[in-house]
Amino acid sequence: MIALKGGTIYSITNGIIKQGTVLITGSKISYVGTEMEIPPEYKVINVKDKVVMPGLVDCHTHLGIAVEGVGNDGNDKNEIDLTVGSHLRAIDGINPADAGLHDARCGGITAVIVTPGSENVIGGLSVAIKTAGGIVDRMLLRQPAGLKVAFGENPKRKVLQKQTGCPSTRMGIAALIREQFVKAQYYLEQWERQQETPGQPFQRNLGLEAIAGVLKGTYPMRAHAHAAEDIMTAIRIADEFRIPLVLEHATEGHKVVEEIAKRNIPCSVGPTLTARVKVELKDRRYFTSAVLHQAGVRFALVTDHPILPVNCLRMEAIMAIASGLPEIAALQAITIDAAAIMGVSDRIGSIEVGKDADIVVWSKHPFDLYAQVEHVFINGQQIFSQGVGRD
């Protein structure tokens, strides 16, 4: 049991509490405020003049499946011999010993989505995890967290790699996705009929089951879409099949913001702190998130690690603020709104009683470039403390 005493608490959802106290009991937050007399059984950590925040959240990464420092041997993002990999699951490729996960937690990022790559038209199922742990099954927040599909240039690269059966145009990509969703609709109908007549033989199809989860609304289609035309194709397909959608990257989201806003489609924006290394990034702008915010769109800021190192997440927020995004919106975009897009805002993303004790103590406000992480707690366990060695 731990008491963080005397800090400035950014609760995210209930304002700022100065000289406040947070009590951690087991894996949960049990008190947030200023009036509590700390029980003697609690270990007190003095955080006077420090900033106490919920752990940061990055809802688009390839942590653990694009393992750092080992070259191609650690790259499990894309199944290169498949065009449709609906049955693939990111959880099965995650290495919890990835140095990137170490960097994440020591950088104040306590939860992430790990998603398959974007070279497959349908890449498989994403998973939301905490960033600390030795066994991925014990790190889970949400499984699955969405079905990854990809529009635009990345899946077209398969043709250049001489992979047969791969679409070579945007028309082909969209047609293939539609075909798979129609097959999944029929599969779901068959499954429902079989439930009415138990005992009848039924041949399972794991790929169609994964798509059926989207059709049932259990989790969203997470659509890799940079360019405005690809964003609109993803929206068009989501409208046709009446499925939940999250736009991943949304680089040109500012160009079609009205269409995004009127459907209340959340976006995982970024990474923006990159060069224009492909044609889809030629119009990338730091003000995209500000435009989305003004239109009332819920969005998160993301690193797409290892495209941008995961502990640069706060830099994405700082650059967005410099281009017009209000500071509170930037904070929400890497905490509570990111958690909501993950589908786990009931557990993480803010400092509230009853939520998971995923808390970070900073030397200064994290949007100060000189701010350092001093303490990190995940599920109530102190997994990093500056000055006593890394986790």
Number of helices: 10
Text of the CATH class of the largest domain: Alpha Beta
The amount of helix comes to: 25-40%
- Reported by name, the CATH topology of the largest domain is TIM Barrel
Low-confidence stretches: none
Return the average pLDDT rounded to an integer.
94
Which percent range describes the beta-strand content? 15-25%
What does this entry look like structurally?
With 391 residues, the protein is α/β, with parallel strands linked by helices. The chain has two domains: 1-54 and 350-391, Urease, subunit C, domain 1, CATH 2.30.40; 56-348, Alpha-Beta Barrel (TIM Barrel). It has ten helices and 16 strands. The chain has helices at 99-106, 153-160, 170-196, 206-215, 228-241, 257-262, 288-294, 313-322, 327-333, 336-342; strands at 2-10, 16-25, 28-33, 43-46, 51-54, 56-61, 109-114, 122-130, 140-150, 221-225, 245-249, 267-269, 299-301, 359-362, 373-378, 381-385. The strands form two sheets. Strands 1, 2, 3, 4, 5, 14, 15 and 16 form an eight-stranded mixed β-sheet that branches. The chain has an eight-stranded mixed β-sheet with strand order 6-7-8-9-10-11-12-13, with helices on both faces. A hairpin with a 2-residue loop joins strand 2 (16-25) and strand 3. It is globular, with a radius of gyration of 21 Å. The model has no long low-confidence stretch (mean pLDDT 94).
